[in-house]
Design goal:
The chain has nine helices and 28 strands. By secondary structure, it is α+β, with helices and mostly antiparallel strands. Keywords: Membrane, Transmembrane, Transmembrane helix.
Length: 381
């Protein structure tokens, strides 16, 4: 029988059969410890890919030192986890007598430090009033249209369900570039809103459906209510759910609308075409051709931002730069056009500075970055 570390290694290497991969993805979604181990392995893969060849004995010693931080975080099972992660990485890389050793950091030229985004948003009321959501609201408030809003430090704003005879107003939470925000809708559903995104919603849900309007990227954890389906309108697309968790990406610059299902079931509809998703599946709408397809995906690649992580698996550098541009509120120019589609695999924290993220990318791609003000120039090393 395979150990969990062998499962992680085989999954990362792409050697699992589709039924095996499904079993592993289910376990990844439902077992918190397996998910943490998997994240640790991905982090160590990134470290190893930024290193040069050395003997396996030297590399093993270096790897054990690198793992010490993980051991300290979970002392009770530190030896099992550390040994297992190391074994999984070795299996993943197919290591015989070689591993890797550190090299010098490639040039990332910066005239100043660009810090990561923060929790911030603007609440737009029906009468046009704008309220800054910057964590300063600590008590419940009654806004100008009579809606009562409670601030919860763990889940952002929380709308109180209103009496049935109250007037329904529409509010919008708008998150700028360099921001993110989390809150609860009146029905208890949780929403995470990424940079350059917004959600328009009623102060009280009425009628047969619970309808909201989204743009950009949002993650929904929907309160189950079989009699009142939850509907997300995104331009000409429509996502219908009962009780589920899913990620929706509608950024216009991506030229795709991606709906990624974490659990439950959703139906994605665009025009006359529709697909019903199962957990681990993604609906892909090509905005240019209007073609609608589905595919099996590693859900964590599309939802890691909710947990404060950037996770990439052979993602083109141009796609990564668009994502970083929204989070760090920057612009970018490819001086070396050949790197536009260059794939990158790695994992990083969203609270790192921009030059730290770019430094990691530079180590494995042969790309150099020059940061001037709020613009990043991408060149060949």
């Amino acid at each position: 029988m395979k150990t969990i570390y062998e499962w992680i290694a085989d999954y990362s290497a792409g050697t699992l059969t589709e039924p095996e991969a499904k079993v592993f993805r289910d376990r990844l979604e439902n077992d918190g410890e397996v998910k943490r181990l998997f994240t640790d392995v991905r982090q160590m893969e990134t470290v190893l890919k930024m290193l040069e060849v050395e003997t396996s004995a030297e590399a093993w010693e270096r790897l054990q030192k690198a793992l010490s931080g993980m051991r300290n975080r979970r002392r009770r099972i530190r030896r099992t986890i550390a040994a297992g992660i190391a074994a999984a990485i070795v299996l993943f890389l197919g290591v015989g007598v070689i591993l890797w050793r550190p090299i010098g950091l490639p040039p990332v030229v910066a005239t100043g430090e660009i810090t990561p985004g923060t929790t911030k948003a603007t609440l737009l009321l029906a009468d046009g009033e704008a309220i800054a959501l910057d964590g300063l609201l600590t008590d419940s408030i009654t806004v100008s249209d009579g809606t009562v809003i409670v601030h919860d430090t763990l889940s952002g704003l929380q709308y109180r369900q209103q009496e049935e005879d109250t007037v329904v107003h529409y509010h919008t939470i708008r998150v700028p570039r360099g921001g993110e925000y989390r809150f609860r809708l009146p029905d208890g559903s949780q929403v995470w809103i990424n940079s350059a995104s917004e959600l328009r919603f009623p102060t009280r849900f009425t009628g047969r459906e619970r309808v909201v309007y989204a743009s950009g990227e949002l993650y929904f954890d929907v309160q189950a209510d079989a009699e009142h389906p939850f509907v997300v309108e995104a331009g000409d697309s429509r996502v219908t759910v009962l009780g589920t968790a899913f990620n929706l990406n509608t950024y216009p610059e991506e030229q795709q609308v991606l709906t990624t299902l974490v659990r439950g079931a959703v139906e994605f509809q665009h025009g006359n075409a529709s697909v019903r998703l199962k957990p681990g599946q993604q609906a892909v709408l090509d905005v240019r051709t209007q073609q609608l397809d589905t595919r099996q995906v590693d859900v964590s690649l599309y939802t890691s931002w909710v947990n404060g992580i950037f996770e990439y698996e052979r993602m083109p550098l141009a796609d990564i730069m668009r994502q970083l541009a929204r989070w760090y509120d920057i612009g970018f120019i490819f001086e070396a056009a050949e790197f536009h589609d260059h794939p990158f695999t790695g994992i990083a924290r969203r609270d790192q500075t921009l030059d730290e993220i770019l430094g990691m990318i530079a180590k494995t791609t042969g790309v150099a970055f020059e940061i001037s003000g709020k613009t990043v120039l991408i060149k060949k090393q």
